[in-house]
Design brief:
ten-stranded mixed sheet, Rossmann-like_a/b/a_fold, Rossmann fold, Universal_stress_UspA, 273 residues, alpha/beta
Length: 273
């Protein structure tokens, strides 16, 4: 892991994300790109009426000063930090920055149980997830020494999630974490017998070319199953696949991915399918 992107809005939650990034960067000897997006829109920047270029320059300088103060933290000492300021919020740009700098992951902060809709302004984190080609880690609380020993990866064991699984395996390997794969078996039309479930899992692992232990966990819903299983093994992180621009709402079905992210007590990381 060489480069981590952390979008910040100077909130307490974005500092949680920055602290996690600092912990990972120190262990992985990685650089942190700290990204701040101004509220300016393109019309304000280019318009010759009612808004002057010097005002744009003033606001940019103000943002640079505030960002510099925000980054003046003891826990960042010794880590290479590169501040990046964008004129206005275009979330596709986050992925452009990631590609330009060959970034490995994005870390963002959340306000907790209110979930993605309360991250920054609107549903900005979900927008980043939709555009991002690299993993996005959502952090909801202060984790001074972020260490991943047990990492849960939950998916539907369909071929579409194979690429996400491979990324999760690589991520776990980089951090020296134990990967726990789980299949959530729920009542109703999706219920599988133990034999059928293992046949599905074995077929998936054969396609992945992986020898990986998988737990079949029974619960009333996929969301509850993922959260309860993760809690039962004291997981440090939950990983889920996402369909990119379709967002978290298309993980498994309905809004399960978003619900898991909103209600999880531990950080959640998404991997693009």
């Amino acid at each position: 892991m060489k480069t981590i992107i952390v979008p910040v809005d100077f909130s307490e939650q974005s500092e949680y994300a920055l602290k996690v990034a600092a912990s990972l960067a120190r262990k992985q000897k990685a650089e942190i790109l700290v990204l701040h997006m101004l509220e300016l829109n393109e019309a304000m920047i280019t318009s010759s009426e009612g808004f002057h270029p010097e005002q744009t320059v003033f606001l940019l300088k103000l943002a640079e000063k505030r960002l510099g103060e925000f980054l003046n933290k003891a826990y960042l000492k010794g880590i290479k930090i590169t501040p990046v300021i964008k004129h206005f919020k275009v979330f596709g740009e986050v992925n452009d920055i990631a590609e330009k700098h060959n970034a490995d992951m994005i870390i963002m902060g959340s306000h907790g149980s209110d979930g993605l809709k309360e991250i920054f302004v609107g549903s900005n984190a979900e927008k980043v997830v939709r555009y991002s080609e690299i993993p996005v880690l959502v952090v909801k609380s202060e984790l001074p020494d972020f260490k991943i020993d047990d990492f849960v990866f939950a998916c539907n064991f369909k071929s579409e999630s194979l690429s996400a699984f491979q990324k999760a395996r690589e991520f776990a390997s980089k951090l020296g974490a134990k990967l726990h794969m789980v299949y959530i078996n729920t009542p109703g039309d999706d219920f599988l017998s133990t034999q059928d479930a293992y046949e599905k899992i074995n077929k998936y692992l054969e396609m992945a070319g992986a020898g990986q232990e998988v737990t079949i966990y029974n619960d009333y819903s996929v969301e509850k199953g993922v959260l309860n299983f993760s809690e039962s093994i004291h997981a440090d992180l939950i990983g889920i696949p996402t369909h990119g621009r379709k967002g978290l709402s298309h993980f498994f079905m309905g809004s399960i991915g978003e619900d898991i992210t909103n209600h999880s007590k531990v950080p959640v990381i998404t991997f693009k399918i």
